[in-house]
Design goal:
The structure holds 2 protein chains of 2 kinds. Chain A is mainly α. Chain A is 71% helix and 2% strand. Chain A has 2 domains: 119 residues; 192 residues, no CATH class. By secondary structure, chain B is mostly helical. In chain B, helix 1 packs antiparallel against helix 2 and helix 2 packs antiparallel against helix 3. Classes of the chains: A mainly alpha, B mainly alpha.
């Protein structure tokens, strides 16, 4: 047994232990902390599985931004959750345990009995890589070969933000999300909020740019930009924009809008929806990605900020 | 290589089972949301295992399932954020987060008139 195998077994055991802790621990706040730790370690599993693009996404969006949303909610719900005393009946608990155990067993058998050699689309991706002029296979799949998925996912982000905004009370309709954050202007938070964003913005743009040929892309870069924006908001240096703001809404529809326009252009001028002309494939895809990173950063940031709570005046 | 795949695969199967169990038995809505994310994370890992076994043509992991998982992670995050917003709204209007009874109409009702 070599060192890599030992590391994998230890990593899997710790992840499994955190998953059990997340479900079994009594206090909700502890469960949330356990889940955030779980997400960050799962990113390490993705690295071991040689899927660095997914690892970046999982760490930035699943563990990072998702963790902020869950921890924020857990803190706000702390008092109310303590009042919740009802428990599922023993019959429900027993049946749920049996059902979950059988599904785990079935999945475990499926994992052990997967066909060999495994089916794969990797050779097809390599054979068609020349069509886009980019060498990161995951970006090729996301932006070209399965571009439809990515476009519809942008629409899902838009629907989610519309859903969150529509939960505002009448008084705060169209107003600013979240509380106005106040922080000590000479404190550490305000200092970091001035120091980090310039570097963070460069890192986010670099992750987008390098995503054409190396692990990275609009999702991961967008998550970095969103966290920089949130840092500035949390330090009280800027306020969240009112959701009725026109420029904000333009940014939110820029990504899916440009994607859809270029897709329809492919239908009109080329052979099919979302078909890129070979000579312009890379510039078109980069253009979509630039619009997408703005949309992703704004949407992720606003999803974290939540429903409007204050009128814009 | 295959040993790591098997170890992580069993871990993913356990995460799915634990998440499903938590989703059905936890009384608190926030715990249900977390359990649902755990379930989803296990399903994503299963994709990763299948992709890892499909390593070919110089890639350590089949790029197609990887792209699907990246899309899935972002969609899961937006669904979680929407669920949390619904939960916070429920707390604001009813004063509790229980899912058992129809929310009481008073005395905690939101003074903003909606």
């Amino acid at each position: 047994m070599n060192i890599a195998t030992v590391f994998e077994i230890v990593l899997a055991s710790v992840v499994l232990g955190l998953a059990i802790w997340t479900i079994a621990v009594a206090e909700t706040y502890s469960a949330t902390v356990g889940f955030v730790a779980y997400s960050l370690l799962v990113a390490l599993i993705w690295v071991r599985l040689d899927a660095v693009d997914v690892a970046l996404t999982e760490a930035a969006i699943g563990g990072g931004l998702g963790g902020v949303v869950l921890l924020g909610a857990a803190a706000r719900l702390r008092d109310a959750e303590a009042l919740t005393v009802e428990q599922a009946s023993p019959i429900v608990r027993m049946s749920a345990a049996i059902l979950s155990a059988s599904i785990t067993a079935a999945l475990a058998f499926a994992i052990l009995l997967l066909p060999d050699p495994a089916p794969t689309l990797a050779p097809t991706v390599v054979a068609n890589a020349g069509a886009t002029g980019m060498t990161n296979p995951v970006t090729n799949v996301l932006m070209a070969f399965r571009g439809m998925d990515t476009m519809l996912e942008k629409v899902v982000l838009l629907l989610a933000i519309v859903g969150v905004w529509s939960l505002a009370s009448d008084r705060a309709w169209g107003g600013r999300p979240g509380p106005r954050h106040q922080a000590d202007p000479n404190g550490v938070l305000a200092f970091l909020a001035r120091l980090l964003p310039p570097a963070g913005i460069v890192v986010g743009v670099y992750i987008l740019w390098t995503g054409a040929d190396h692990p990275g892309g609009a999702f991961q870069g967008g998550a970095v930009l969103a966290s920089m924006w949130l840092l500035v908001i949390m330090a009280g240096l800027a306020d969240t924009p009112p959701v009725s703001s026109r420029w904000l809404r333009l940014i939110l529809v820029a990504g899916p809008g440009l994607f859809l326009a270029i897709g329809l252009g492919g239908l009109w001028l080329g052979p099919a929806f979302l078909s890129y002309p070979a000579a312009f494939a890379k510039p078109l895809i980069l253009g979509i990605e630039v619009a997408m990173i703005l949309t992703i950063a704004a949407t992720l940031g606003l999803l974290l900020a939540g429903a409007p709570e204050r009128s814009s005046q | 290589m295959t040993s790591g795949v098997t170890v992580f695969g069993l871990c993913a199967a356990a995460a799915v089972g634990l998440g499903l169990n938590g989703l059905m038995t936890s009384p608190q809505p926030l715990r249900k949301i977390i359990a649902f994310n755990l379930l989803g994370s296990g399903v994503f890992l299963l994709f990763g295992i299948v992709g890892r076994r499909g390593a070919a043509a110089g890639f350590g992991n089949d790029p197609v399932p990887q792209a699907l998982v990246i899309t899935g992670v972002v969609v899961a995050f937006s669904a979680t954020a929407l669920a949390i917003a619904l939960l916070l709204r429920l707390l604001k209007t009813s004063g509790s987060t229980t899912l058992d009874d129809p929310a009481p109409t008073s005395p905690h009702s939101d003074p903003s008139g909606d």
